[in-house]
Amino acid sequence: MSDERPIIEFIDVDINNSDTLVIEKLNLVVHEGDFVYITGKVGSGKTSIIRSIIGENYISGDTARVGDFNLLTIKNKQIPYLRRYLGIVFQDFQLLMDRTIHDNLEFVLKATGWKKGPEMEERISEVLKQVGMETKSHKMPHQLSGGEQQRIAIARSLLNKPGIILADEPTGNLDNETALSIMDLIQRINKEDKTAIVMVTHNQHLIKQYPGRVFVCGNSQCREVVNSDTEIDLDLDF
Hints:
CATH topology of the largest domain: Rossmann fold
CATH superfamily of the largest domain: P-loop containing nucleotide triphosphate hydrolases
Strand order of the largest sheet: 7-8-9-3-10-11
Order of helices and strands: EEEHEEEHEHHHEHEHEE
Distance between the termini: 25 Å
CATH class of the largest domain: Alpha Beta
Largest sheet: 6 strands, mixed
Helix content: 25-40%
Radius of gyration: 18 Å
Number of domains: 2
């Protein structure tokens, strides 16, 4: 593990969803280039951790930092800048269905402060090439397969060269073969760009095939476990 300052540092953090304590005393430290899985049963708080990292859930604790943003004191006006530091990939893609792939990506660039047309065009071309979709910019989302839409969603997450990609069940709506191709892509981005990946998944086969650090959520806690060749126990008694 790197000796450099972590890019995510949660120390004894409590995560709340409305008035309900979801995760108690979370210790999650992520460095540049880490590949981290968050797994556990439905309702165990996996997605709540992602929502906390993007400044959506109320949290308290000793330390809660993402990049240079202190999540314990962050102001609402700072949250858009936090989210520019993060790339986010959802299970259901969340593309804008009324515009082309090019215009989906351009919309994000404009919304995050890009002004110059030539620079935006160059960046759109770069991320589409990176995910193998450079010939699809003129297509509408409904003209693409689920795997292709997820590749576009990953391209969108790369637009602002994030230090971290948060992926919430990115293969959940895909068949096995397509899921593996998406995992190959995510792993390549992790290795080549040193982009940290924090991925929520319930798919233990993926965790075994693409090894990384593993956190298991349950009983209002989420703790790191040893990722071995044996099945991960989702009923761990913390």
